[in-house]
Amino acid sequence: MIAAGGGRFCGIRFITASHPDQAAWGSPVIRPAGLLLDPKVREGFARLAPLGLSIDAWIYHTQLGELAELARAFPETQIVLDHVGGPIGLGPYAGKRDEVFAEWSGHNRELANVHVKLGGLGMRMFGFSHHTGELPPSSEELATAWWPYIETCIAAFGPERTMFGSNFPVDKGSCGYAAVWNAFKRIAAGCSAAEKAALFSGTASKFYRLE
Known about the structure:
Layout: H1 2-5, E1 11-15, H2 39-45, E2 54-58, H3 64-73, E3 79-81, H4 97-108, E4 114-118, H5 139-157, E5 162-164, H6 177-187, H7 193-207
Parallel strand pairs: 1-2, 2-3, 3-4, 4-5
């Protein structure tokens, strides 16, 4: 793949999101618990940095401690955490948003050498109800609901380690594409021009070597 990519293949995405109750939020694949701690997974993970490859990690908030341990064990490996770290809002976490938020945000401080993607909040596993309305939500509604998570990530990681992403077509079940990006613009309205440039393009271009 590296040879065939001609310099365009720069990383992999490894989906390890796992929770005993994940069938409740429509996950089609049940993965074993503790996958990031598995010796065979770590054996493969150790090959990434020497090959010049990054990794996108899609996990739930209950696994952030495992990712923090992995990042400490492989500090030279470029890691980006997808979908703000997956704070679950369904199943046993329904109605416990404040409790989940506190646990999720606490783990963010442990991920000192990790980047994060700001997106994916349209997925139902986050526990929002935008998919139930008669009309799609406006960008104002999305910005209000998503602001605590995105603002917390920007504050914890800094614009140089955060990047906006739409997660389409998956998020289409809850909202429109234009509304997503307009919501991001509303959330970032108070940022400087340099910070906006990083959030909307610069961080992603640097991380994925898109120059």
